[in-house]
Amino acid sequence: MTNSDKAISGPIDLKLAVGRLKPSATVVKYEASVDDRENIANLIELENVKRFSAAVEASRWRKDGAQLALSISVDITQSCVATGDPVEEVVEAESELKFLPADGRHKSSGSAKDYDHLPNFDVSMTGEIDADDPPEEFFGDSIDLGAVLLELFSISIDPFPRSPDAPEDAIARELTTPEEEDASPFAALKALKSSADE
Predict the structure, then answer these.
(1) For the chain, what is the total number of helices (H) and then of strands (E)?
(2) Interior angle at CA 187, CA 182 and CA 191, nearest 5
(3) Are 94 and 61 contacting, i.e. CB atoms less than 8 angstroms apart?
(4) What is the distance in angstroms between the CA of the first residue and the CA of the last residue of the chain?
(5) pLDDT band at 82 (very low <50, low <70, confident <90, very high)
């Protein structure tokens, strides 16, 4: 996830002023309005967004960053991939993210190596960056929470919604790409049979 201009943004106008955060968590709650739900549905190409609720616990991380614990609960309607019938889905997801300013001010912090000789040392005391899980970056003085929530939502939706009444063979046809079909063992057998017939 990113907080750059490449992230999904628009329908949820929700910003988090990082400079006002404290070490203790601040809770931000969001309930989408009718207009917001309609705009979210149009953006992500859903039939309907009936409810969109979110909660964010935000606290100061390092000197000028933030750490977020996000949770969303959303009721949506999608179209079945095989029949086009409406499919109801409840999307619930959680995520934890850390953010630092994009201007690189955080790069001057000391390494955990400078403190690991101390008997009660804990790497979390330094806020050292984990190379395997680097923080996101934000621009300016605030994090675009709307974009972050929308991205979490978009990657949590079932990409292949299926109606209970959809025939299995119809679903299989919809979920099989031409490349997958060519690479399947049945395609190989079909090719062999064609060669033999020639």
Answers:
(1) 5, 7
(2) 110
(3) no
(4) 53
(5) confident
36-50, 80-94, 113-127: which range is least confident on average? 113-127
Q: How does residue 51 score in pLDDT terms, banded at 50, 70 and 90?
A: very high
Question: Exposed, middle or buried: residue 6 (CB in 10 Å: 0-12, 13-18, 19+)?
Answer: exposed
Q: Tell me the residue length of the chain.
A: 198
Helix axes 34-44, 145-156, angle to 10 degrees: 50
Distance CA 188, CA 173 (A): 18
Contact (CB, 8 A) for 50 and 91: no
Closest-CA residue to 30 (of 141, 144, 159) = 144
- Report, in this order, helix, strand and coil percent for the chain, each rounded to 5: 30, 30, 40
